[in-house]
User: What shape does this take?
Amino acid sequence: MLSNEKRIILLLTIWLNAMSNKELDLSSKEKILNAARRAFIRNGSSGARMQEIADEAGINKALLHYYFKNKEGLFELVFNDAFSEFIPKIHSIFSGDGSVMEKIERYVETHLELLIRKPDLPLFILNEMQREPERFFSGILNKMPGAPPFESFLKQIEEEMKDGKIRNMNPRDLWMNVMSMTVFPFIGEPMLKKFLVVNTEEYHSLLTKRKDSILTFIQQALLLPKTNNP
Amino acid sequence: MLSNEKRIILLLTIWLNAMSNKELDLSSKEKILNAARRAFIRNGSSGARMQEIADEAGINKALLHYYFKNKEGLFELVFNDAFSEFIPKIHSIFSGDGSVMEKIERYVETHLELLIRKPDLPLFILNEMQREPERFFSGILNKMPGAPPFESFLKQIEEEMKDGKIRNMNPRDLWMNVMSMTVFPFIGEPMLKKFLVVNTEEYHSLLTKRKDSILTFIQQALLLPKTNNP
DNA sequence: GAAAATATTAACCAACTGGTTAAATTTTAG
DNA sequence: CTAAAATTTAACCAGTTGGTTAATATTTTC
Assistant: This one.
């Protein structure tokens, strides 16, 4: 299926990766995990090839099975690592101290920082979740304590709305908006670059400034105009 | 790799699909396209199997090659259909009449309507775009006349900001926010349902109300408080 | 320094894969 | 009603795939 040009590029990539892996002096296991991440992110769990992973790691294919029982085991490990990195601090943010706006700021800051470093995470996670939803609803997501923290955050939002601190709207819509504006620009980069008529550098510059932009936007949408100027 | 339970479910699905296809009296070609969409959406172009597509379509595998030269040809067709359905009217919205808010309203309305009917579209398109970006930057995206319409819309946004009609912010951030809030809730459904503590019906009910919610949020973020009450 | 443990590899396997082909069947056209 | 065209299928193919194994090499331990 691969053209000759693509094959050359692939081989060059494999060689460069092998050289860079050698230079970094990683163990074989670490090289495998790095290569597996790239392969699973790019092609999904069913499209990724064990030989492809071995080639990118610069090792013999049998070593994959020596360290990780099988392809599914390797995938589980890679996915669980990604998932627990992506999900993580939301719960402590929800149940910690601070106003609604402060919590939103903390979430946006934390997540933008993570996604700038690992822009492939959300698409990878969400794509595998749609591919095999039952894997998550019977496993890793059930281990995720979603209900309590968000429900208390929900209450807090409702109270601040009732107190007139922030504008009245469906709290679930609010959170949906916050997550959308934080995460989607990383998922939608190829399309957004085209729409916004920017190149990759310009786009990434936009992303590094997103924190202030998102927070200002949310504040302007939520905060009521003050009747008493300080 | 499939467990027996999954195999039974798959076979039942194939049978039900075959029965429903028969009931709908579609041509073989249409059955193939429907099955191919489902397979490519779920597993990606490299993970989807020709035999899987044939099984779901209820036809012999050789027929795939009779109608569509090969797997890549079938995928191209499916992807291009999806892409031209997802991208489409943005350009006429950008270059048409109306204020910035009116254009935003038109975009949100049009796209929500499309995505409620076809919620798998954005994840599929963006996933394939990240998997093989060169396919798009040398092909279909170059055919997409992105530059002129958005640049004129950019100018319009800037003018309305300068005129004090809407609040000052980076127009690219504005559009990024609009697209994010419209598209991400469809991509992020499995995760958002968990965070928001809603079931599928409740989540879809949220989605059907998103138009007003998004537009109100944007208006509150953008529109300046009036100094003269009518 | 030798034994034990760990790592690594080439070669191999059965099953799966995308694609092909000739024959049979069905549909269409005249 | 028959020939032509279109559709459909079973059987097949070479290459790819995930996984295994025995042998070899390297590292670690005592």
